[in-house]
Amino acid sequence: MEVRQVDGGFIINFSSGFQYDYFGVFGISLSSPVSRDRLIGVLESLRGIFRIQFLNADSIVSWRHVASAALKALRSFKCGRNISHSIEMELLLYCSGERQIKDALRVSGLGEFVKDFVLAVFGSSESEVYNGLKRFLDSCLEAKLNINVLSNRSMDHFKHLMKLFNVSEDELKSVSKRGLSSWDALEYILIERGCALEVYK
Question: Which residues contact 158 (CB under 8 A, 6 or more apart)?
Fold first, then answer.
């Protein structure tokens, strides 16, 4: 797996013979909050060989969290063990660690109004990922790339993630004993939630 930081995010080359070997994860900020329905309308207007998903930035601990979920989603389709019918929704399931789509939407889906969010793009080449990103930005002129959306390290965000994913202090302390910082321990736990989903399918 190769990872490259680019403007506003990261592009990952999984090189594993998946349907989509390239994946981009980008932080997006809007000049002012817009409705979820409007963003979904923009998404539905985009047609290409790439696939795009929106993720609630408040449910993401890091870009690695999203990349790990993408890898598991691609693997589930390759092995015929996918829960959903689309790679976009499968990504949401693994990011949230939830088996039910309604629960995944509650955890990692967009809220009613959105200002900052994560844009995930699947493509069979790096140029396809860029094409998906460009077409979205061209269709939503108030959207700007903002890599800081992928690296929110505020204490409020930390506490929100702990509550959202029902991570106990004991669980966090147990993982932290391995020499990890609190943030790294939380990232490990959330990525492991996706691994657990893979096991329980």
Answer: 182, 183, 186
Contacts made by residues 186-190, CB under 8 angstroms, sequence distance 24+: 186/61, 186/158, 186/161, 186/162, 187/61, 187/62, 187/64, 187/65, 189/165, 190/61, 190/65, 190/97, 190/161, 190/165
145: tokens are 């790339």
Write the single-letter amino acid at 56. Answer: N
**H-assigned helices in the chain:** 36-45, 63-78, 87-96, 101-108, 126-139, 155-164, 169-176, 182-200
* Whether this model's pTM surpasses 0.85: yes
pLDDT digits (tens, 9 = 90+) for 22-54: 999 999 999 999 999 999 999 988 878 899 999
For the chain, count helices (H), then strands (E).
8, 6
